[in-house]
Amino acid sequence: MVKRKKSSGDSLESVVDIFEAVKLAMTRRGFIRQKPGTKKHPLTRKDRKQLLGIAMKAHDMLFTANTVFPLTLFPDTVTMDREKLTIAKRAFFRVAKITSVPIRDILSVEANVGPFFGSVHTSSRYFITNPYTVNFLRRKDALRLQRLLQGYIIAHEQDIDCVSIDKDRLIILLQDLGKGDTG
Questions:
Q1: Which residue ranges form the domains of the chain, and what is each CATH number?
Q2: Which residue has the higher pLDDT, 68 or 46?
């Protein structure tokens, strides 16, 4: 027969060990993100200059489109820059639900186009079951957004650094890369 210990100190330690074990298991499976090791060292002048350059280029707007007014009373806005895709869904005056998705996390993009209007459906790594949809875009805007996003997805998969490329040249290259041959 096994004897049980009735010490309150042992039971508290075992509870803490269980929490640590659960946390470790959740971290290994990817449910909890690990915090990277934080090393505190001052930024050098070169690091500051590089960070400033990246921040300035991140604000380059590559694409902006609004939905068509008569079909949507409060037009939605889609904005794409070098780092993220931002969708602002408006429900009333000065009221919006703004969602930003890093481009590197977008898995697929689809465009449904008709003779005048189109819609774009994007699914990201975090919203696989609930893709974002923007309806009633102009046909040319839906196609252009789809091509740009598809080009960016391909560029990220090939580990191509798009930061050093000029904005106008980047737009042309991404559209060419994302353009599919539909025959």
A1: 60-178 (2.30.29.30)
A2: 68
